[in-house]
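Sample entry (545 residues):
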Amino acid sequence: MRRRSLAPLLAVSVTATLAPLLATSTASAAPAAAPSAAAPSAAKGALDRYVKQKPQWKRCDADSPAELECATINVPLDYRLPGGKRIDLAISRIKSTAPDKRHGVLFSNPGGPGGQGLYMPMGMQERLPESAQQKYDLIGFDPRGVGKSSPVSCGLEPDEEEWLRPYKEETFDKDVAWARDVANKCKEKAGDTLSHITTRNTARDMDLIRAILGEKKISYVGYSYGTYLGAVYTQLFPGRADRFVLDSAIDPARAWRGMIQWWAEGAEPAFDRWTEWAAERSEKYGLGDTPKEVDRTFWDLVEQADEKPIEVEGWPNTGDDIRSGMRGAVFSPEYATEGIVELKKAAAGEPAAAKKLAPFAGSEGAGTAGAAAETPSDNMTASLLAVVCGDNSAVWSRDPESYRQDAIEDKGRYPLFGDFASSIKPCAFWDESAEPATEVNNKVGSLVVQNEWDSQTPLPSGQALHAALKGSKMLTVLGGEGHGVYPNGNACTDGTVTGYLVTGKLPAKDVTCEATADSNAEARKNQKRNVLPGSPLPERAPDRF
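Predicted structure, serialized as tokens:
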């Protein structure tokens, strides 16, 4: 089926795009339906030229299926100066399986920030039911600064990329020096670009892709960080948002320091749930007959590893490794229990299964599997920091001592991870944001999807996004474990989401589904292989959204 001509859409596409793109920064970035009267004609002309691009689609690479096509387009580095520097944006598509039933385009984002989305249509094709595949061309893209989209780099060494560090009085000054050095290296290596690698600009890129494709609206499935990106899009371009599924949601008011601190806050109730679960199965696992005894078993292991790391197949596990690993593992009680049983064996000098101890061996990072050879090795960390630090610099104190105090206090409140979340980060030395963060507060229709027990975006975070998106409905999976819900084989959750994508009709009211043994088993499988449902790439890691 031939794509319809761009000509009838050019005026409305550029008009709808210009206002949010060319307007000067505002605190809430309230969207406008018409271009700003003050927008210079030169800027309009520059954006018009971007919209007129014709993607040169071709097979992405020899290893990808023939139906996955890729192209490269140009977008402005700075939308306030569209006639200035350009950067490349890699996009992809898999066409609808039934052109006569096609509704439009379905964009997707796997999370991050810094997650590559170019190959996301492959995962979406694999997991979406045929009824949804018929409705959409599946559109993927590497967000600006990521993967094949003009990737940024700070020139960091692997040890410098460890950005979640526990607080220790004896090392804090070194951690401050590390944070300052990372920020300085980023400025030196990518200073002219870094300030423009933001969620707001990625949302603008999405709308430019929409216009180039000749579409009036986009539908969207976003996971984790992708929920925030989707929410920002609805705020900037409310008239362009069609069917939006926001799975495992970010609280927009807490982007980004507050969301990192959610990791510590959300882990405590999950830890309490785990101690109860393990105590009820004490005959099988032997960690304690009561929740208090299970709690003591865990903290005794941490104390032992603080004094002398517990080795498993030559790999030392410190007390900090155990605390950090348990934060993510504890949201699946069975997964956490299996790991602690093996750790207890290793602490006693007995043979232990290293695979079950993976979460406690320190973060391996999200990695860059599937990345192009030319992608810098630190790209995921550089692009993560660009967004986490640059989206809203106002939430990051410039006083290192404030981080010391927060880390000490939060370790007391949230002993599992409080100091990791609140201690010093490179953001303390980042340049001021190019524009204020987006206040999400609109009535655009969307579906927020959330597991009750989610390690990266706890349930209250999803509830907060639902409250900010006043036109949304929320699907909550009671007892649901893991990060990323759709699709998971649960008839209630999958049926609700697929029904919305296929028909465009939101549920009449919020929906509650019960997790099943199979859906939680699927979550554990995803957790172990470190991937997000719908993505062929291992983008899900304990230090990412």
